[in-house]
Structures are given as structure tokens and as C-alpha cells.
Design brief:
homodimer; three-stranded antiparallel sheet; alpha/beta; 10 helices; Pantoate--beta-alanine Ligase, Chain: A,domain 2; 10 strands; six-stranded parallel sheet
Chain lengths: 257, 257
């Protein structure tokens, strides 16, 4: 049965008293759960004795205050989904007061990969993300933590952080889960109007033609009036970010060799 | 008997295989050991089953390249001292290649306390220090870690980092150990000429007159031609940094109430 926990302190006590010698899988989220999140939970449940999800909308990774305010918060629905799917044993709901008791004066930053792509368009985003993920990884102390490949740059930064700081936790990337149109599931999809959603589907149908070059993709997106922040290839993988209305959508895939 | 270990990987294996359920005390150092270090080791040995010391001259915390090059490296003497005093069970000698496999692209910084006093005179110093200490605390994973009050600003920053990142390790401050003149033991004392050492002793005799104000102390140091970077009081404690030749010396003490 799902247990809801409201602080890292409470979790640490439960872990020390009740979960000795059990392997722990961890799925950090900002809530508004969708099947992408569930795929991470399912994988964690298959690989660990216990699965913990955190739900916390981390303010420091939002460079855009408007985006933070509009971020969908659907806690009751999220908990219902977790209860019905049964992959998650503990749901950790965190507060700014506990996570940022330090007033965000301590920060973890990365100076290379974080300066590309999303880092250019979202100043401060990756520092906020790395800081909160390190807090969570150390507070929860799991054996494995699960992240979606949809945010591949994020995954790579977290995996690099794990190595740089000798964390014992395994960082596991899980394949992007897509809607029928090919659009990756994302909490921000819920903010798209019907018209914008159609445009988002067009975006995906264009981007997912892997045999095309970035330039060909850019041309077609331009014809559809879809604003592109970047479309580029790094280390055998193609990344894109587009703007549809005031929503940014990301995607990426490995290039065939 | 002292065991010398040459990597965090090796330490992690020993810890997992041979030290299960033992409490571990940790004393991170840059070598050139003196009685100040030994007091930390003695305290650790009295409070833990096993004591680990690391010896690593961390390049990223030296803002002054000259200071890094001249930092005394006395590994054979250090190991002899550890063998004779018997407080330390494991000595972990680290390399730049392992500690900075990430090329120092991941950094931990603090934005408030680190901007005062030493932070003003040594740009980048505290970021390098916090980064390496977090690597060591996570790599060694001790129950307790010991730091000298001589570097009180450093201790406070590390203790804040522990809280901000939910580290399980206790951060323990140990009293400053002083030479007969009152001068705190420091590896940098070994770089003072005979004349400079006399001046350092005069510095201590002036600073340790606690009943005087900072201004009175400054005046007397000026008369002795001793350059002062700062002398100030924060949260009931008085801090000072002076320059003698090209050596900087620090000290601090709590003010009587």
C-alpha cells in the first residue's frame, strides 16, 4: 500500500528502521504524473525491493517565473494513479522549507555540458536541477535512480554528477514514452490548447524522420510556423527544442550509425 | 597497523567488505601533518571504530599558483608520524586524476558566508574547498568528519553544506592547537623564515589579547609592520588574517560574553 511521507527526515527514519538491507529505487518527479513517469516506476519496481517517488516542484530550476506558476499541480490525481498502479511504495512530498532551508545559498553547477542547448535558453536551470537532484539523491539515498531519456541532457548531467562526487547510486536512463503521434509525454503537454496540440503533433512527425538532416527538419518546421530554439547533433544524438505558444517542447534520439 | 590506500575505489571495496557495521571517523588533510592534525585524529580514534585520514593537496582551492607550488609535501614524514601515533587506521592518498576525473566541471559553491573574509581575499578558494570536501565525504562515507577551528569559516561552510545536502555525516569542530607563543599550528608556518616566525609570534601575542577591540589590535599590528587583510567580528567570534612575507596566517576565537 502506498505510504505518503512529508519530509526527508521522516523518510530517513523509515529507511533506517524498516528498510534495512532492502534495495531502494527512486523516481524523482515534479508531479502531474503521466505514463512516462509510470514507465520509470515500473522499471524501478522490477529492479528494487522498494520504490520511492518524490513529488516536488523545484522552484530553482525554473528560469521563467511564469512557467513555475503555471506548472500543473495535481497531487490528488497523482496519488490516485500511484495507488492504482502499485509500482510505488513510498511517495515523498517535499516542501521548499525543508529542501531549501539554506535559502539556496549552496549550489551545484556544471560548467561544460550545462552551457549547451537547454543551458543557453534556460539560464540557471541546470544549476537548480543539479542542486535539487543532489539533495534528493543524498536525502533519499537510493541504490538506483531513474530518469527519462526525454530530458537526455539532464540525464547526462546527473550521471556526470554521480561520477564526479563518487555517489553510490546507479543513474538509470529509461526510453522516452510517446503518444500515438510520436510526441513525448510531458507534463507541459497538458498546457497546450487543442490547436497547439495539433501543432505539437506536427512537430513530432517532422522531427522523428530520422533520415533527414537537421537543416531539412528546420526548413519543414519553419514552413509550419514552429519556432525552433535549437536542433543539433552531439555525440551521435540529435536534440531539439521548439516553442509552441509559450510552451517549450523537447525531444531527442540516437542517430542510426 | 596503518594501511595505505591509493584510491577511493580501493577504499570503497575495503569498507564494503571489511568494515561492515563499524563507525568511521574521517580526517581530511593536505598532508604536512602537525599536532593540530593529530588532535583531530586522536578525537576521531576516541569516537569511532576506525579512523581514516586522506592526504591530498587539492589544487582547486589554491587561488594562488605560487602557494600551491610551495605547499609543503612531506609524505614519508607524514606516514611515519601516523605509524608512530597509531590514531589512524587507513591513510588514503589521492590523485588529481581520480578526484578530478570530471576536469572540475562540477562545482559546489556557497553564495553568502563564502563571500566574506577569506572569500574576498581568496577568490574561488571556498568553491574548490567545498567541492573537494563533498567529493571526499561522499567517497569516504564516514559517520563523523573532523575539522580544526583554526579554519572556522571553512568549518561553518562545511557544516552548512552537510545540512543543505542532507548528509548523514556529523561535522565536528575541534579546538585550535597552538604553539607556545599562541600561534596556531599550520602547515604554512613551516614556510616562515626565522625572522618571519618571530613576527608571527608577535602577531599572535597581539591578536590573543581578547579584551582589546579590533581597532586596538589593528593599531598594534600596524606598529609591528604586519599587514592585515581583515580583522572583524561575526556572530560573537573574532577573525583575523595577516600577511607575513608572502605567507597568510589566520586565527579566530569566540568573544567572551
Amino acid at each position: 500500500m502506498l505510504k505518503v511521507i512529508n519530509s526527508i527526515q521522516e523518510w530517513k527514519q523509515i529507511k533506517a528502521r524498516q528498510l534495512i538491507n532492502q534495495t531502494i529505487g527512486f523516481v524523482p518527479t515534479m508531479g502531474n504524473l503521466h505514463v512516462g513517469h509510470l514507465s520509470l516506476c515500473k522499471k524501478s519496481a522490477s529492479e528494487n525491493d522498494v520504490t520511492v517517488m518524490s513529488i516536488y516542484v523545484n522552484p530553482t530550476q525554473f528560469n521563467d517565473r511564469n512557467d513555475l506558476q503555471k506548472y500543473p499541480r495535481t497531487l490528488e490525481m497523482d496519488l490516485t494513479l500511484l495507488r492504482e498502479t502499485k509500482f510505488v511504495d513510498y511517495c515523498l512530498i517535499l516542501t521548499d522549507e525543508e529542501v531549501y532551508a539554506d535559502d539556496y545559498v549552496y549550489q551545484v553547477s556544471e560548467l561544460y555540458l550545462s552551457q549547451m542547448m537547454e543551458g543557453i535558453f534556460r539560464p540557471g536551470h541546470f544549476t537548480g536541477m543539479l542542486t535539487v537532484v543532489l539533495k534528493l539523491l543524498l536525502g533519499v539515498a537510493p541504490n538506483r535512480a531513474y530518469f527519462g531519456e526525454k530530458d537526455y541532457q539532464q540525464y547526462r548531467l546527473i550521471d556526470g554528477m554521480k561520477k564526479a562526487f563518487f555517489l553510490d547510486c546507479d543513474i538509470i536512463a529509461c526510453p522516452t514514452v510517446r503518444e500515438e503521434s510520436g510526441l513525448p509525454f510531458s507534463s507541459r503537454n497538458n498546457r497546450l490548447s487543442v490547436e497547439e496540440k495539433q501543432k505539437a503533433n506536427v512537430f513530432s512527425s517532422i522531427f522523428l524522420k530520422k533520415y533527414q538532416s537537421c537543416e531539412e527538419i528546420l526548413q519543414q518546421l519553419q514552413q509550419e510556423n514552429i519556432g525552433v530554439d535549437y536542433c543539433q547533433e552531439i555525440e551521435g544524438r540529435r536534440f531539439i527544442a521548439v516553442r509552441i505558444g509559450d510552451i517549450r517542447l523537447l525531444d531527442n534520439y540516437p542517430l542510426e550509425v
